């Protein structure tokens, strides 16, 4: 039982770390898009495609 709890804690810790990395990647992507200036509808759709 103790081993199972430790494995679960380790797994949760690794998932949290991966989640934080994914959040940072999304934030960087949003900032990069925002720094390029105002987007018109067509340009926005091109970026999202």
From TrEMBL:
It comes from Cochliobolus sativus (strain ND90Pr / ATCC 201652) (Common root rot and spot blotch fungus). This is Uncharacterized protein. Residues 5-32 form a coiled coil. It comes from the Eukaryota. Keywords: Coiled coil.
């Amino acid at each position: 039982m103790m081993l199972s709890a430790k494995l679960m804690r380790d797994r949760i810790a690794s998932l949290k770390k991966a989640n934080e990395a994914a959040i940072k990647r999304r934030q960087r992507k949003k900032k990069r898009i925002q720094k390029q200036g105002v987007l018109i509808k067509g340009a926005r759709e091109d970026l999202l495609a």
